[in-house]
Amino acid sequence: LKLGVLVSGRGSNLQALIDACRDPAFPAEIAVVISNRADAQAIARAEAAGIATAVIPHRQFASRADFDAAVDARLRQAEVALVCLAGFMRLLTTGFVAAWFDRMINIHPSLLPSFKGLHPQQQAIDAGVRLSGCTVHYVRDEMDAGPIIVQAMVPVLPDDDESRLADRILTAEHAAYPLAVRLIADGRVTVSGERTLVSGGGW
Ligand code: GRF
């Protein structure tokens, strides 16, 4: 399965996908990594791994639709079958979401539907929950919503601050994202309304 990974920053989830794809038995490969920021560490990670990259600076476009069209064209050029958002910090237009419907996934550092949006780890601490984690889900128009593919759970510890909890969740993310890609590539994920069915069990 050919992946297109959209990034804006550090790229640790991209790195987890790169590492997973190194295993010849992993049923996916990264065809292109696209960043809206030239200085993203994620771009350096992709280059180090010998993966094709594209920097598409959003400020160079008159509208979100024009920016999304450029991203779409690059994904199609690379014959991408599944788009993976991995710390991509731009909102996507309805048209782009529709064009990649059920073929675009995102990872979010909370157990959705709790704590959508920015600073979900701080939101979890502020809410006093004892468990948090991450969610890989299909992308819909509403931010951080859509059929859930994989979730992983971590404890929230009494002396956690945002950064400690974020680190613990990130470790879980690095296992969850490759797992979600593998389940999809193996044809084990079916979208049914607002849910997915995963054959043969999730983990
Ligand atoms: C991750 O926590 C991801 O869940 C969120 O943004 C962060 C990206 O980190 N969407 P990285 O760039 O993958 O290191």
From TrEMBL:
Its EC number is 2.1.2.2. It comes from the Bacteria. (6R)-10-formyltetrahydrofolate binds at residues 64, 89-92, 106. The active site is at residue 108. GO terms for cellular component: cytosol. GO terms for biological process: 'de novo' IMP biosynthetic process. Pathway: Purine metabolism; IMP biosynthesis via de novo pathway; N(2)-formyl-N(1)-(5-phospho-D-ribosyl)glycinamide from N(1)-(5-phospho-D-ribosyl)glycinamide (10-formyl THF route): step 1/1. PANTHER family: PHOSPHORIBOSYLGLYCINAMIDE FORMYLTRANSFERASE. This is Phosphoribosylglycinamide formyltransferase. Keywords: Purine biosynthesis, Transferase. GO terms for molecular function: phosphoribosylglycinamide formyltransferase activity. The record marks 144 as: Raises pKa of active site His. The keyword Cell membrane does not apply. Catalyzes the transfer of a formyl group from 10-formyltetrahydrofolate to 5-phospho-ribosyl-glycinamide (GAR), producing 5-phospho-ribosyl-N-formylglycinamide (FGAR) and tetrahydrofolate. Gene3D superfamilies: Formyl transferase, N-terminal domain. Residues 2-181 form the Formyl transferase N-terminal domain. Belongs to the GART family. HAMAP family: PurN (MF_01930). It catalyses: N(1)-(5-phospho-beta-D-ribosyl)glycinamide + (6R)-10-formyltetrahydrofolate = N(2)-formyl-N(1)-(5-phospho-beta-D-ribosyl)glycinamide + (6S)-5,6,7,8-tetrahydrofolate + H(+).
